[in-house]
Design brief:
Blueprint lengths: L1 H15 L8 E13 L10 E10 L2 E6 H20 L6 E3 L11 E5 L4 E8 L1 E8 L6 E9 L2 E10 L2 E8 L17 E7 L4 E10 L7 H7 L14 H4 L2 E2 L6 E3 L1 H13 L1 H12 L5 E3 L19
Parallel strand pairs: 4-15, 7-14
Antiparallel strand pairs: 1-2, 1-12, 1-13, 2-3, 3-5, 5-6, 6-7, 8-9, 9-10, 10-11, 11-12
Length: 305
C-alpha cells in the first residue's frame, strides 16, 4: 500500500509540479459573509454555519473560510509550542484534528483570463484549473437595500440549484461568494430557492493600500459598525496582492479525487508516503486524522436529466 501511495504521489508531483504564471492583482477590499448550509434535509434546523471572506482585486478574487484561517493559526501556535518543549532526541508532533469540519478549499477567480482555480489540500496544496462558470443570469427590476447598499435582484440555475442573488452596481466587481460570478456588480447576498444554501453579507474591511476610488467611497458610506476587525491573519489576509500559491501543484480534479480516496482508505499510510516525498524534516507526524463527515445534501447537486 505504501508503494502505491509513493508511486501515485511521485508521478503526480514530478509530472505536474509547477506554479501558475498569474500576474498579481492589488487587493482592494475584504468582504465577509455568513455561510449557512443545510447538509442534512432531515435536520433543516441544524445547518452548518461558517464565516467566510472574499478578497477582492480589480480583476480577480479569492474566497475562503475565515474560520479555517483562525483554526490554522491556532494549530500553528500549538505545534510551535510542542516543538519548543519537545525532547530533541525524540521529536514527535501531535497534530490535533478539529471537531468541526471546516472548508479548506479556496476559490480563485481571474476574470480577464476567464479562469477559475480551486486550491485544495492534502498534505500539499493542489491547484485545479477550469474555465470560470458561465452563469446565465436573469436580472430583475426588483431592488432592495442591504446594509446601506443599493442592490438589484438576479436569478440563475447553477450546480443543480436555483439561486437568487442581490448585487450592487456601485461596487463594480464581477465576483461574489463561492463560485457565483458574472453580474455587473458585487454579489452582496445569495441563496438557493429552497434556502438550503445562504451567503449573507456581514461587513467589510477596506484595504488601506488600495487607491482611492468610487468603490472605496461606496464602502465608506456603509455603517461603520459593520466594518470587520482582525481579518489580517494568515498569508492571504496580510498580502497586498491576490496571487496563487507559488508552491501549488497543478493537477486535475480526477487526479485529486484519487488522492482523496487513497487518504480515506489509509490516512496514516498516506501521510507517511506524502512525508517521504515532500518532507525532509525528521519530525514524526502522529495521530493524524481527518474528521469524517457525511454530507447528504452537498452544495453542488447533480443535474436532473
Amino acid at each position: 500500500m505504501k508503494n502505491l501511495f509513493s508511486t501515485l504521489l511521485v508521478s503526480l508531483i514530478f509530472c505536474t509540479f509547477q506554479s501558475y504564471a498569474q500576474a498579481p492583482d492589488t487587493l482592494r477590499a475584504k468582504i465577509n459573509y455568513r455561510f449557512s448550509h443545510v447538509t442534512d434535509t432531515t435536520k433543516r434546523d441544524q445547518p452548518k454555519q461558517e464565516q467566510m471572506v472574499l478578497l477582492l482585486g480589480q480583476n480577480s478574487s479569492v474566497y475562503l473560510s475565515m474560520d479555517k484561517v483562525r483554526e490554522d493559526e491556532a494549530r500553528k501556535k500549538d505545534i510551535a509550542e510542542q516543538i519548543k518543549n519537545a525532547d530533541p532526541a525524540r521529536m514527535s508532533i501531535n497534530i490535533k484534528s478539529s471537531n468541526k469540519k471546516l472548508n479548506g478549499t479556496q476559490v480563485y477567480l481571474f476574470n480577464k483570463e476567464k479562469k477559475m482555480v480551486t486550491k485544495q489540500r492534502i498534505m500539499n496544496d493542489y491547484l485545479v484549473e477550469e474555465a470560470i462558470p458561465a452563469l446565465k443570469w436573469t436580472i430583475s427590476k426588483d431592488t432592495s437595500t442591504i446594509e446601506g447598499l443599493n442592490c438589484q435582484k438576479a436569478s440563475t440555475h447553477f450546480k443543480g440549484r436555483d439561486y437568487i442573488a442581490w448585487f450592487c452596481q456601485d461596487l463594480p466587481f464581477q465576483s461574489g461568494p463561492w463560485k457565483l460570478n458574472g453580474l455587473p456588480g458585487l454579489i452582496i447576498e445569495a441563496y438557493d430557492t429552497k434556502k438550503e444554501i445562504k451567503f449573507e453579507f456581514d461587513g467589510f474591511e477596506q484595504v488601506s493600500h488600495a487607491a482611492a476610488s468610487a468603490v472605496e467611497e461606496t464602502l465608506e458610506a456603509i455603517d461603520p459598525k459593520l466594518s470587520l476587525k482582525g481579518l489580517s491573519t494568515g498569508d492571504l489576509l496580510t498580502a497586498k496582492t491576490i496571487s496563487l500559491p507559488k508552491d501549488g501543484i497543478k493537477t486535475s480534479q480526477k487526479e485529486f479525487d484519487r488522492l482523496k480516496e487513497a487518504m480515506r482508505r489509509d490516512p496514516q499510510g498516506f501521510v507517511n508516503s506524502s512525508s517521504a516525498v515532500k518532507v525532509t524534516s525528521t519530525t514524526q507526524l502522529s495521530k493524524f486524522t481527518t474528521p469524517g463527515e457525511d454530507i447528504l445534501n452537498p452544495i453542488e447537486l447533480p443535474e436532473r436529466k
